[in-house]
Design a protein that fits this description.
This protein is of the alpha/beta class. It contains 13 helices and 17 strands. The relative contact order is 0.16. Bound molecules: pyridoxal-5'-phosphate (PLP).
């Protein structure tokens, strides 16, 4: 049995549960199938990775075309797919330059290292502290768990990396209070993901920009989950008319292949010199080819407009369900196709019932249901998913009346 073999050979970090966790073997668009041929609507999407659904034809084609040419070259050499992707990202964002990594945590590591190095170079003295938000999530490496303002990710891994302070999300005064002569940057997610889907207010992000300008700090946005069209704009910060000095991407960037990116202004990019940072696989040609196809799709005429329309439809329908089940859906938060339903302790079981009926959604912190449908999910698939959720809530209320 595969499940027993997994327990035997793989370190138990993911808490997969026999009988409760399907083995997914095939995917197409917004649907996946398990080993028994059972079909699910996949509104987890690899946690915001499969933003164009499974086996999206332009990504398959880009990957196989690149695989036949060359799969890997070292960063000792020039790379065509890297330059093509970099040009696309830079031309469609406020950034001037990009560094390629393989994951979100690595993109954030690059951002943290660059903020320190640039600041030291520019101001010629020790300035290395970064203020991040409570309930944030920035990754699982030592520096990025430290940047993550949630104690549960720290426990057991001390001593943590020095140089991080925490402030309350959406509370400008709380951030201001953490700034001192050692601060070099402020880093936040415009929409917090793992922390429970919390959306930044415009006053907060615009206020952070002003704070950074007043104190000569770098503003870093972690767009790893909320970027790449997820909120209906290519980058979530576009909703706020705030431009960061550095921002990071990963998850959906590669259309399912592992790639991360750290983008920054031309000026800040000067903080890194040859030898300062590197990654063997970073900017791998196949991953870059996939990412180029993914970004190209998001940039297609009308694509993001349709995301905004369909996600507004989904939100409206969820609000209708909240009207019917106010005791179960306590709050709806999010932007675009990044939505969280505040449920409470029932969330775990509701997620399970949805899975039984063919809808995969994710539960964060045991209390919030997170919906991350592919950006190109068809309207009838949204309707089908809503039907499953409504049925589950209906039966829950019936049984617990
Ligand atoms: C997932 C995530 C990360 C970490 O990305 P990995 O690829 O798992 O290292 C960092 N920040 C945010 C906001 C994320 O959602």
């Amino acid at each position: 049995m595969l499940q027993e073999e997994e327990r035997k050979y793989i370190i138990n970090t993911y808490n997969r549960q026999k009988g409760a966790t399907p083995l997914l073997v095939r995917g197409q668009g917004s649907r996946v199938w398990d080993e028994n041929g059972k079909e699910y609507l996949d509104f987890v999407g690899g946690i915001a990775v499969n933003a164009l659904g499974h086996c999206y034809p332009p990504i398959l084609e880009a990957v196989s075309r690149q695989m036949e040419k060359i799969i890997h070259t070292s960063n000792l050499y020039y790379s065509e797919p890297q330059v093509e992707l970099a040009r696309m990202l830079v031309e469609n964002s406020p950034a001037g330059k990009v560094f390629f990594a393989n994951s979100g945590a690595e993109a954030n590591e690059a951002a943290i290292k660059l903020a320190r190095k640039y600041t030291k170079q520019r101001f010629g003295r020790e300035r290395y502290e970064i203020v991040t938000a409570l309930d944030s999530f920035h990754g699982r490496t030592l520096a990025t768990i430290t940047a993550t303002g949630q104690e549960k990710f720290h426990r057991g891994f001390e001593p943590l990396v020095p140089g991080f302070r925490y402030a309350r999300f959406n509370d400008l005064n709380s951030f201001r209070a953490q700034i001192n002569s050692y601060t070099c940057a402020i880093m936040v997610e415009p929409v917090q993901g793992e922390g429970g889907i919390h959306v930044a207010t415009p006053e907060f992000l615009q206020g952070l920009r002003r704070l950074c300008d007043e104190h000569n700090l770098l503003l870093i946005f972690d767009e790893i989950q909320c970027g790449m069209g997820r909120t209906g704009k290519l980058f979530a910060f576009e909703h706020y008319h705030v431009v960061p000095d550095i921002f990071t991407l990963a998850k959906a960037l590669g259309g399912g292949l592992p790639i991360g990116a750290m983008l920054c202004t031309e000026e800040v990019a000067g903080g890194f010199s040859p030898g300062d940072h590197a990654s063997t696989f970073g900017g791998n040609p196949v991953a870059c080819a996939a990412a180029t196809a993914a970004v190209g799709t998001l940039l297609n005429e009308g694509f993001l407009e349709l995301v905004r329309q369909n996600s507004a439809f989904l939100l409206g329908e969820l609000e209708r369900l909240q009207g019917i089940f106010p005791g179960l859906i306590k709050e709806i938060r999010g932007k675009g196709f990044m939505l969280g339903l505040e449920i409470g302790s029932e969330a775990v079981e509701i997620r399970m019932h949805c899975q039984d009926r063919g809808l995969l959604i994710n539960c964060i912190g045991g209390e919030v249901l997170r919906l991350l449908p592919p950006l190109n999910t068809k309207k009838d698939e949204l309707v089908a998913a809503l039907g499953i959720l409504e049925g589950v809530l209906q039966d829950w209320v019936g049984k617990n009346a």
